[in-house]
## 1
Amino acid sequence: KAGVTQTPRYLIKTRGQQVTLSCSPISGHRSVSWYQQTPGQGLQFLFEYFSETQRNKGNFPGRFSGRQFSNSRSEMNVSTLELGDSALYLCASSFSPLGSGELFFGEGSRLTVL
Amino acid sequence: EDKVVQSPLSLVVHEGDTVTLNCSYEVTNFRSLLWYKQEKKAPTFLFMLTSSGIEKKSGRLSSILDKKELFSILNITATQTGDSAIYLCAVENTGNQFYFGTGTSLTVIP
């Protein structure tokens, strides 16, 4: 059974640009959540999608957005990139909505903003 | 403000030692507390705790939750070099929001 797949694994952008990250959950999983991981702040919750609906959103500015498709794949977009957006972005999937079971994480997309 | 605090931030031990990792939290409407192990790649699930005083055990790892004092501990006995990783604690509230600690970096020296 394939795990959670995130693409791209690494990317470099400059300030002001935008970026789109993709996450394919484990087959059959309908919940996808996104997290930002930085050395200073640790893992911070961005948002969660279940059945194409955003169910929860963390404390991030509106430059961070996402969506989920009918096949449960999810994308996350960050517009007007800032240096502080440099981080590892992890996505996790679960069969049920958050709270009903363990999360399965992807290997992350490491974003560097210059 | 909801928060999860892990201690120590980092730890270096020798193989065979026993370690205790701590996780304290202040999260309203608590639902569950989870432990993850993160090596170079994706965090992997260790335990989910919802009830106080019930120890969860998996091999040399065990964990327990105290909902009155708002903390959890993760114990690792007879540590091995393969236990070297960052151990993450997360708390979920009833609104399905996750709050993670910054993690404890464990290094096991042969």
## 2
Amino acid sequence: AQKVTQAQTEISVVEKEDVTLDCVYETRDTTYYLFWYKQPPSGELVFLIRRNSFDEQNEISGRYSWNFQKSTSSFNFTITASQVVDSAVYFCALKVRTAGNKLTFGGGTRVLVKP
Amino acid sequence: GAVVSQHPSRVICKSGTSVKIECRSLDFQATTMFWYRQFPKKSLMLMATSNEGSKATYEQGVEKDKFLINHASLTLSTLTVTSAHPEDSSFYICSAIPDRGRNQPQHFGDGTRLSIL
């Protein structure tokens, strides 16, 4: 069975601070995909990134960056110079080949960026 | 980019009513769609996998007769909450995977907030 753990339930920062969201996953499959989604207060899920298990390169997209470490089964997400608009719930998710296209979500981390 | 439309966005109705939620893929075909349920301040819980032309596959603990899923075309799946009660109040979200590009991320609808009085 698959499992995704987001240990931080809520993080509060002041604007312009950096914030790192932790994600630890468990799977016995060697082929899998990891995702991050953003859910703003309006409720929709916004896709941020997908990583496959064979690509451990870290990625940067604007103020967002991701650190994939297979050795520790972690896929952490950092928001640099946070802004109020970054306030949302962020979900890490896992998809494994043997489970079809089902996504296993972590519990989510609520980020509150104060002005 | 791929768009999934979910309708209605919000429903408020009396206990005992049946409520239908639609999930449409607007610019792609989707043999497979998913229905999730999200309680306040909780994560998304997969309810079922909707397969075009065949029966849905429900997750353990989800009542098939309570949550009827119909995937009658390659662009539309519906979830009907039958004889809804207050405990069915929740946020329901659908997602779809494009048939062309099944390794793509799931594309999510904007969700339906269901409130049963």
